[in-house]
UniProtKB/TrEMBL annotation:
InterPro entries: DUF2062
Record lineage: Bacteria, Pseudomonadati, Pseudomonadota, Alphaproteobacteria, Hyphomicrobiales
Name used for this protein in its record: DUF2062 domain-containing protein
One protein family per Pfam: DUF2062
Sequence intervals crossing the membrane: 62-82, 144-167
Length: 196
């Protein structure tokens, strides 16, 4: 096996890595950052893709975030891979509780209504099982969707600007490094090859 450990991990080590990864929690974020930086598209396309992914991550339609990000990136001339990476990095199981709580509160503030569900209980599993979208829209989805618009717009614009200038700087530095390497390669004296 190519990537097998020499000494298999024991139960204690596997349990520890489940709660505290050996390479740390920031490694996946560094990977996503480097993957975004190394895309060969223009800085605008990469930044627009990331912004589209971040924007749709705020919406409560959790099963179709990638599809929505692809459609939005397509219409805004964004990069599809960057849209997928932006969606996965921003909207994930660690961030969804915070996103949902924020959109819920902002939605109720914008709609200027009291908490419609105070004193009431809604069986979400039953509504999802029976697909009663009309009963789910007013108390849950409408405030979350309305509440998602301001933070989605702000965060996607901020991340567009950050991503654009970061990718642009990375591509300029990379291009300069490749040009210097090519210049050194061309300046190297060629060895005489004996002719037969």
């Amino acid at each position: 096996m190519l990537f097998r450990r020499r000494k298999p991990a024991g139960l204690r080590e596997r349990t520890r890595e489940l709660f505290w990864p050996r390479k740390g929690f920031l490694r996946p974020l560094r990977y996503v950052k480097m993957r975004i930086l190394r895309l060969t598209a223009s800085p605008h396309a990469v930044a627009m893709g990331v912004a589209a992914g971040v924007f749709v991550s705020w919406t409560p339609f959790i099963g179709v975030h990638f599809i929505m990000a692809f459609v939005l990136a397509y219409f805004l001339s964004g990069n599809m891979v960057a849209a997928a990476l932006g969606t996965a990095a921003f909207g994930n199981p660690l961030t969804y509780p915070f996103i949902w709580a924020a959109t819920w509160e902002i939605g109720h503030l914008l709609l200027m209504r009291e908490d419609a569900m105070s004193g009431q209980s809604v069986d979400l599993m039953e509504l999802f099982h029976k697909l009663r979208f009309t009963e789910l829209w007013k108390p849950v989805l409408e405030p979350m969707l309305i509440g998602a618009i301001p933070p989605a717009a702000i965060s996607s614009v901020v991340l567009y600007i950050l991503t654009f200038y970061t990718v642009k700087g990375f591509q300029v530095r990379r291009r300069a490094k490749l040009m210097e390497r090519a210049r050194l390669h061309l300046a190297r004296p060629t060895q005489d090859i004996p002719t037969v």
